[in-house]
Amino acid sequence: MTSPVRLFGAGDVRALAAELDLRPTKRLGQNFVHDANTVRRIVRLAGVGPDDVVLEVGPGLGSLTLPLLEAAASVVAVEIDPVLAARLPATATERAPGRDLRVVTADALRLAPGDLPLAPDVLVANLPYNVAVPVVLHLLAELPGLARGLVMVQAEVAERLAARPGEKAYGAPSVKLAWYAEAHRAGPVPRAVFWPVPGVDSGLVGFTRHAGGAPPEADRRAVFAVVDAAFAQRRKSLRAALAGWAGSAAAAEAVLRAAGVDPGARGESLDVAAFTAIARARVTAGS
C-alpha cells in the first residue's frame, strides 16, 4: 500500500529553504506556496486524475509537486534552478514515497518535446510573473499533447489571459491563448499563502485546448503578426494600426474589407476568428 503524501506547511518551507541556504529572488519569481489547502485546491480545479501525466513548471521547493504526485500517474517537473532541481527527488521520496516524479533541469521557455521523459497531457504550475505569458504560449506551441492546464499567475496577467473581446484587459495575450485554447478565470489566490509574501495579487487561469489538433504553424505566425500589429497601437483604428503590416493604410483597408472586418474598428473588439480571417485575406490578396 502506498504511503500517504505529507504536504508542506509554512515551517516546512522555511526549514527546507534554510537547508538549501536559499534566498528567494525576484529575478526568478521565487514565491513559494506554503498552504496545503491552496495546493490541494489547485490540483482539484485542474482536474488531475490517476491517468494524467502532469507537467509542472517551476516546482521550486515542491509545495505543489507533492499533491500533484498524490493525484496523477506521473509528474514531470521542469526547474531552471539546479539547486532546487537536485533537491526535489529527495523531497518526493521523503514526503510522497512510491510516486513517479521525473525532474528536468531546463528553462521552460526553451523546452522542446525531446527534453521530456514523458509526454504530458496537463500543465499545472505556479508561474513567475515576468514570464508567465510566454511560457504558457511556448508550451502550447511545442507540446500539442497538452490538452488542458491550470496556472497560477499575477492577477493582472490572469485577467489578460482570460479576457474576452471588448473587455478592458483584452489584448495580444488574450488572443494568442484563444488561438490554442478556451481559457477561463478559476479564482483568486491570497498573498498570505506565499513565502515571501508577494507585492501583487495572484489568480488562477484554466484552459482547455481546442479539439481538432493544431492549425498549421504558418497560419499561427501569420495570425500572431496581425495581432501584434493591431495591439501595438491599440487605440488606433485597424486601418491605421495595420498600415505598416499591410504596406499602407489603403492596403490594410482592402484586406480588412475582404475579411469582413470594419476598417474603423479597433483590435480590442475582434476575436481570434476575425484575426485569422484578416491574416488569410492578406494571403489571398497576395496570391
Question: How would you sum up this structure, described in words?
Answer:
- The protein is an alpha/beta fold and 287 residues long.
- Helix content is 41%, strand content 17%.
- The strands form 2 sheets. A 7-stranded mixed sheet has the order 4-3-2-5-6-9-7.
- Helix 4 links the parallel strand 3 and strand 4 (101-105).
- The longest helix has 16 residues, at 217-232.
- The chain is elongated.
- It starts with 9 loop residues before the first helix and ends with a helix.
Q: Give the spatial strand order of the biggest sheet.
A: 4-3-2-5-6-9-7
Q: Total helix count? A: 12
Q: Rg, please? A: 21 Å
Tally of DSSP β-strands:
9
Instruction: Give the averaged pLDDT, no decimals.
Output: 93
Largest sheet: 7 strands, mixed
Helical residue percent band: 40-55%
Show unreliable segments.
none
